[in-house]
Amino acid sequence: MSGSRSLARRCVLQALYQWQISGDTPAEVVRQFEEERGLGRADKEYFRELFNQVCGRVDELSAELAPFIDRPFAELDPVERSVLWFGAQELQQHLEIPYRVVINEAVDQARLFGGEDGYKFVNAVLDKMAAETRSVEKDF
What we know:
The chain is mainly α.
């Protein structure tokens, strides 16, 4: 299951990137991924759930991430923005996923698709956010 979840996160990252660049509606992006690109062995249900959750909370997530970032959120690379959005969404709303898994998955996607050191930035930001949103879990 974790492999299919990792693939779903990869698809979410790609879909969020496409959504930012194309200006298509979230429903159109999901349709393109499901019908045209295919999701392979990815957890399709989790892909739809996470993508739609992020799209519905993008302004809120951006504002909640802002205190942990050293520049305006709009100036971030679209890949970094996408990874931070889905990482923040998982940290806040998917408490069944250990925070270390959330951060590792986000860092892995940033390493694959982001700039040279983008994964370090993603790691630092999500680690700071986890210290606040998952403080009870981090203390153990």
